[in-house]
Write a structure and sequence with these properties.
The complex is a heterotrimer of chains A (361), B (289) and C (368).
Chain A (H helix, E strand, L loop, with lengths): L3 E9 L10 E10 L4 E5 L6 H9 L6 E6 L2 E2 L10 E4 L11 H11 L4 H15 L14 H13 L6 E5 L7 H18 L2 E6 L2 H7 L2 E6 L2 E6 L1 H6 L4 H6 L6 E4 L1 E3 L2 E4 L2 E4 L2 H9 L4 E5 L5 E3 L6 E11 L3 E8 L2 E8 L8 E5 L6 E4 L2 E2 L2
Parallel strand pairs in A: 3-8, 3-9, 6-7, 7-8
Antiparallel strand pairs in A: 1-2, 1-4, 4-5, 9-10, 11-15, 12-13, 13-14, 15-21, 16-20, 17-18, 17-20, 18-19, 21-22
Chain B lengths: L13 H22 L1 E5 L2 E4 L3 H7 L2 H31 L5 H15 L2 H12 L5 H8 L10 H29 L3 H9 L4 H12 L1 H16 L3 H6 L11 H10 L3 H28 L7
Chain C lengths: L2 E10 L2 E11 L4 E5 L6 H9 L6 E6 L2 E2 L10 E4 L11 H11 L4 H14 L15 H14 L4 E5 L7 H16 L4 E6 L2 H8 L3 E6 L2 E7 H6 L4 H6 L6 E8 L2 E4 L3 E4 L10 E7 L4 E2 L8 E13 L2 E8 L2 E8 L9 E6 L5 E3 L5 E3 L12
Parallel strand pairs in C: 3-8, 3-9, 6-7, 7-8
Antiparallel strand pairs in C: 1-2, 1-4, 4-5, 9-10, 11-12, 11-14, 12-13, 14-20, 15-19, 16-17, 16-19, 17-18, 20-21
The chains are: A alpha+beta (361), B mainly alpha (289), C alpha+beta (368).
């Protein structure tokens, strides 16, 4: 199967949506290339699960078409869509063994028993479940159960895409690592399209080649982890990606420099040009990782007061105050932090400007 | 056992203890007392040991009643459990219809037991009852006061009509507790409706069905009011169930045998409840490859 | 108040949930319990709250045996993973409920609820019912109720685990500030090392695993000097990289073919077998300094998480994870060198006890 194409999709859970807020999913067009690893990232209620369910066929969109390759599957039921899904809480068939669980989708599709055995053993091998095939699935740990849910998708030769709905919610942090790694390996090996829904940026960015950041029923940006991190198209993306999120400072523009509460920060000529042409409310955005603390003043530096230091073991987060606005800085674990007054260095390449929350440069 | 921090809490249990003592333990001890004595009148009692028990255990009329009782309870379970599950499966999952269905289902459960008997007497009367008249009009001879089979069918119908709703309500509650993800996963796995029932709904309903089986077994095994009102145990002895026979014995002032019988009765119910419970606990949990 | 565990254990049936354990929590202290699931975190909290009785040992409250103190007279508040509120009460009534039980005057209740609601950003929601709130707001309400109680002992059992990532971040910060202002003993259970540091960076940590207390003390000290291999594992995310090795003839050998002279913290190691460990953030794909050791490895996987890249690499049968700042695209199976500086190595002996740890000074924070 080929790529998944969402054409003018919109969805409302109401029968007669009127206001904009009635739409759980605002109109969007989207293409998922064959074999890609994608993530849908956003806070709860942003529409990401709705979007996932539209792809899997559990929800029929109020408007628009879902195309798998050239075929219109908008009205097709889930079972006929060649799609598998892994849910937030592991779904296993309690009364069956691991083997029977994995064989279940194939038996339902009348695959010959010897072929089933072959597929199940392959998948069990891949998921490191071979030793547990004969155990009753009910007694396994949450991560093994979740692997079984995934396995039931992998055994099917006809599956073209596997969808994940926050699959690691109930997994221990130490095991999350292993499962993430497993997922990546499976993606590389199987060439399946994987679409992963989560509210956890680490999970999304770690898993996916391309991440769609959603909020309020809209896809705000679709990009590689690097793009989302270095050049967020929308202030929400900047806030949501990164921990702590991007610093945003309302600012004005005056003679080639951004003015923050009266403090002047000179901008690159290119950015200054765009800022001069921009309409709307201006904000300056900079990631805590790209800022640095200096003891002396300089060209692209602003004076701040150091308010708090959090030592997180492998790095420190310093909260500073720039004329009444809080700015966070991430500094290496072994760096000394000035006690009271410091100078924040804004590297020109990573200093962004936003007009009405949209990136201008 | 270590001392609990606040022993005063136990005083709260005292009223319950008193009530249970007066309502269960003391009457039970009275029955035990009667079961081992032959009482002629006030102050005239003789200890007879296990004589009444031996007599009751070899009483063929009791054997007949016991067999009848097992047949009845067995049929009740065989009909009501699957039927209740089927009704639950057919019920809507949401919307205003749910409330409607629940109210309709609950109606038979709200009617006093002896009234049920009366309703069915009228309903099945061959001269004026809707069911009796209809069946006779179709050329089927039907008279529960004359034909033992007809009496049985009527009692069964009444019992099923009265109590299947309870099973359905329990099963419905069990079904609603299954998370949506299970159904979604099953759709994705291409499971047929039967497979969904067999591998998701039935295992997930096990808990409530255990309760349903226990309740229905106990209730049907102890059934009294409805058949007593409807058939009075007849025609002949064809619907004389254990409790009806027990009442006949005790009202005939055979208090000793009746007391022994009561205890045997009680032990049988206890034993079977335990057996059912054990069996249902183990269903679907044993390993097999 | 103070809370002391003297050889407290807890068994349920044949299962031991807590092995005999000694603890002493100072009045006003902030304590984080860190451990994976089933470590016994909830069991300890329940013992502290008085919901369960110890199977062995004694719990002393203010020096007095806790068994003499009925549950309702202990001033304990607890917040759970699940968002637990009275469903038929408004947010206001939920927060006010412990105050009403304490018999406070109406005006005083209004004032206190208003104050706490302000701190937890619930003021505009006070007249809503819990069902009309988002998960984050529900948990805020539960927190507010616990705080309103003004307890001597505030217990939190992974309170943020069911919340969205960003909400967790936000609430963590608020909680830090709230805990700092309180005089109660705060005990906060978590599975995440990062959260333990963020919440309890200034307090102490109890590292727990399978019902045993592995280490207790200042959080940063336990992070930098894990007493055992297991503490190192529990207190590192991603897991600490470990490699078996030995010390002989004044040199250390790691794995099959990595050799280095003994220097710095390693200088004191006596000859013998060790397990060497290094945290992922001290493993680099580019040389950082002259005395770095280079390890030939093959990329198994490169995971990118926005600001960092986690590089899984294999070196002669052992797996390594390096955490690099920035985005690094590496192909599967690519041959790379990872660099580790000897000064970042931990060494654990045959029993898993810490024998050497990277230099670290418990310097007082510049700004509090």
């Amino acid at each position: 199967m080929a790529r998944i194409n969402l054409k003018d999709i919109a969805h409302s859970y109401m029968s007669a949506p009127e206001a904009e807020a009635d739409w759980a999913l605002k109109p969007l067009n989207h293409v998922w290339e064959d074999g890609g690893a994608y993530a849908l990232l956003g806070p709860s209620g942003c529409g990401k699960t709705t979007l996932l369910n539209i792809i899997s066929g559990l929800v029929t969109p109020s408007r628009g078409q879902v195309l798998f390759g050239e075929e219109d599957v908008t009205e097709l039921p889930t079972a006929q869509r060649n799609i598998a899904q892994v849910f937030q809480f592991p779904v296993i068939y309690d009364t069956m063994t691991v083997y029977q669980n994995l064989a279940f989708p194939l038996r339902n599709r009348k695959v010959p028993e010897d072929r089933i055995r072959e597929r199940v053993e392959d998948v069990a091998e891949m998921l490191e479940l071979s030793d547990q095939l004969k155990q009753r699935a009910q007694r396994l740990t949450a991560d093994a159960k979740q692997k079984i849910s995934l396995g039931r998708g992998l055994v099917r030769a006809d599956v073209a895409a596997i969808l994940f709905d926050e699959p690691l919610t109930v997994i221990d942090p130490h095991l999350k690592w292993q499962l993430r790694r497993k997922l990546k390996q499976i993606h590389d090996r199987s060439g399946l399209t994987l679409i992963y829904v989560t509210h956890d940026q680490n999970e999304a960015l770690t898993f996916a080649d391309k991440v769609a950041v959603m909020n309020d029923g809209r896809v705000l940006q679709m990009g590689t982890p690097q793009e989302l991190f270095e050049a967020p198209q929308h202030t929400f993306v900047g806030f949501f990606i990164g921990s702590p999120g991007m610093n945003f400072l309302p600012c004005g523009f005056e003679a080639g420099a951004a003015t923050i509460e009266g403090a002047r920060l000179p901008l690159k000529a290119e950015l200054a040009e765009k800022a001069a042409a921009a309409a709307g409310e201006l904000k300056l955005g900079i990631r805590p990782e790209f800022l640095s603390l200096a003891r002396e003043n300089g060209e692209s530096r602003l004076e701040v007061a150091v308010r708090a230091v959090e030592d997180l073991g492998n790095f420190k987060i310093v909260s500073t105050e720039l004329r009444g606005r809080t700015v966070k800085v991430k500094v290496p674990e072994d760096q000394e932090v000035p006690a009271e007054t410091a100078f924040l260095d804004f590297p020109a390449d990573f200093t962004r400007l936003y007009a009405d929350d949209q990136l201008i440069g | 056992m270590e001392k609990w921090e606040d022993n005063r809490a136990w005083f709260m249990v005292l009223p319950v203890f008193v009530i249970v003592a007066f309502s269960a333990i003391i009457p039970l001890m009275t029955v035990v007392n009667y079961s081992v004595q032959d009482i002629f009148g006030p102050g005239e009692a003789y200890f007879v040991g296990t004589e009444w028990f031996a007599e009751m255990l070899s009483n063929t009329r009791l054997h007949d009643a016991l067999l009848r009782q097992f047949l009845f309870s067995g049929l009740v379970l065989l009909i009501e459990i699957p039927l209740g599950v089927m009704i639950a499966l057919a019920m809507p999952a949401q919307g205003w219809r749910v409330s409607l269905c629940l109210v309709l289902l609950a109606l038979p459960l709200l009617i006093p037991w002896n009234v049920i008997g009366t309703i069915w007497i009228i309903f099945t009367r061959p001269d004026i009852g809707l069911m009796g008249v209809s069946l006779n009009a179709l050329g089927l001879e039907f008279d529960h006061t004359a034909a033992p089979l007809d009496a049985w069918v009527t009692v069964m119908l009444m019992e099923v009509w009265h109590w299947t709703p309870l099973v359905a309500l329990l099963a419905y509650a069990g079904l609603r507790a299954i998370p949506d993800a299970y159904y979604q996963a099953a759709r994705i796995d291409g499971a047929s409706a039967w497979a969904v029932f067999r591998y998701i709904q039935l295992p997930k309903m096990r808990g409530v069905l255990t309760i349903a089986v226990l309740l229905r077994f106990m209730d049907s095994f102890l059934i009294y009011a409805e058949p007593f009102v409807l058939t009075g145990g007849g025609p002949g002895n064809s619907t004389t169930f254990l409790s009806i026979y027990l009442v006949k014995l005790s009202t005939a002032m055979d208090l000793g045998p009746a007391a022994a019988f009561s205890i045997i009765y009680f032990l049988i119910v206890l034993l079977f409840c335990w057996l059912f419970y054990q069996a249902l606990q183990n269903v679907g949990t044993g390993d097999k490859s | 108040m103070s809370l002391v565990f003297e050889g407290v254990s807890r068994k349920v049936g044949a299962e031991t949930h807590i092995y005999p354990m000694d603890l002493a929590l100072e009045p006003g202290s902030l304590n984080v319990i860190l451990g994976p699931t089933l470590a016994g975190k909830t069991s300890i909290l329940r013992l502290m709250a008085g919901l369960d009785k110890p199977s062995g040992g004694r719990i002393l409250i203010e020096g007095a045996d806790s068994r003499g103190i009925p549950l309702r007279r202990r001033r304990v508040a607890m917040v759970y993973q699940q968002f637990i509120n009275y469903p038929s009460f408004t947010v206001f009534d939920n927060i006010a409920s412990p105050l009403r039980r304490a018999g406070l005057e109406r005006a005083e209740i209004d004032r206190r609820v208003g104050e706490i609601a302000e701190v937890l950003k619930l003021t505009p929601l006070l007249q809503r019912l819990p069902a009309e709130l988002s998960g984050g707001q529900q948990q805020r309400t539960a927190l507010a109720r616990a705080l309103a109680k003004d307890a001597d002992l505030l217990l939190l059992d992974e309170p943020l685990v069911n919340l969205d990532y960003k909400l967790r971040e936000e609430l963590r910060e608020e909680l830090r500030a709230i805990f700092r202002r309180r005089s109660a003993i705060v005990v906060y259970a978590t599975t995440e090392p990062g959260e333990a540091l963020m919440i309890g960076g200034r307090g102490s940590v109890l590292v727990l695993d399978q019902g045993r207390l592995l280490q207790s003390g200042p959080t940063l000290a336990a992070y930098h000097q894990p007493a055992t291999l297991r503490v190192g594992a529990v207190f590192s995310d991603p897991p600490m990289n470990l490699i078996a090795g030995e010390v002989a003839d004044g040199r250390a050998r790691l794995g099959a073919d990595i050799e280095l002279p003994l220097s710095g913290q390693l200088a004191r190691l006596s000859p013998g077998g060790y397990t060497f460990g290094v945290r992922a953030n001290h493993l680099f794909v580019a040389r950082q300094s002259e005395d770095d050791i280079a390890i030939e490895a093959r990329v198994e996987l490169a995971e990118i998480s926005g600001s960092e890249t986690f590089i899984h690499a294999a070196h002669s049968g052992t797996s390594w994870v390096a955490q690099e700042e920035g985005v690094h695209s590496l192909g599967l199976g690519e041959a790379i060198q990872v660099f580790v500086n000897p000064r970042h190595l931990f060494a654990f002996d045959g029993e898993g006890r810490l024998m050497a740890a990277p230099a670290w000074s418990a310097a007082p924070m510049a700004a509090q």
